[in-house]
Amino acid sequence: MQTNESQAGSAATADDRWAAAGRAAEALASGPRPVHGPSIQAAIVASATLMAGIGVLLAVLGDTDWHVVVAALGWVVAVGAWLHARRHGRLEPFIPHRSPVSLLAPTDRRDLRRQLRGVDAPTPRSVEMVDAIVRWQRRTSAATLPSLIGLALVLLGNPRPLVPVLVLATSVLLVVLMALERRRWARVQRLVAAVRSEQPAQT
Questions:
Q1: Contact assessment for residue 90 and residue 42, using Cβ atoms and an 8 Å cutoff
Q2: What is the pLDDT of residues 83-140, one digit of tens each?
């Protein structure tokens, strides 16, 4: 049986974990932030450059000039997206940041993940962290999408007929997944707004 002192210590530890996780989540959501090492956008540019070079070579050898135009356009989009993200501090690290959720106790992590999926409403304790994590996820998605579009255009410029078909199929799947994510974000943010609106009445 826990004593009052041990219960108070456990509560303080939990509060410290929530405070640290909340600060980490807000730092990720706010940006801009320095990126040490390669970024996702830079990795996509490297892939786009390699694929564009292969695609252009195959297109020239096969005398299919329109593939060259599409591949070059995709490369320009990928490079432009990387430069824009670099200039505005929106580069995303290739090796992901440690998730703020990992700073919490296992039970709190499980509850928070349900809240982030929109299954449960956030609590007054978790509402700010839930909001920050959703903003971080939206920021990451928006920052990397232009580079992915550029890479998709590069692959569409590949003269091999199977490659564009696979790219189109993958693009459709990604659009569906993004639509589902946007619905989830909107649902979570509605729950966040509802919890915040109730807080003044409880004080």
A1: no
A2: 998 888 888 887 767 788 888 889 999 999 999 999 999 998 899 999 999 998 898 8
C-alpha 110 chain-centroid distance: 20
What is the distance between the alpha carbons of residues 156 and 70, in angstroms, rounded to a whole number? 7
Structure tokens at 125: 């304790």
Q: Is the dihedral of CA 192, 200, 107, 14 positive or negative?
A: positive
Helix 127-156 to helix 162-202 angle (10° resolution) is 170
**Residue reference for tokens 């978790």:** 126
The predicted structure's pLDDT at residue 115: 93
Helices (H) and strands (E) in the chain, counts: 6, 0
Rounded to the nearest 5°, which phi and psi values hold at 57? Answer: -60, -45
Give the Cα separation of 70 and 119 in Å (integer).
43
Q: Look at residues 129, 145, 135, 130 and name the one whose alpha carbon lies nearest to residue 178.
A: 145
Q: Which two tokens stand for residue 149?
A: 């579009």
Compute the distance between CA of residue 129 and CA of residue 8 in angstroms, rounded to an integer. Answer: 23
Residues of the chain with pLDDT under 50: 1, 4-9, 202-203
The predicted pLDDT at position 187 comes to 94
Phi-psi region of 89 (alpha: psi -120 to 50; beta: other; left: phi over 0): left
Q: Is 161 helix (H, G, I), strand (E, B) or coil?
A: coil
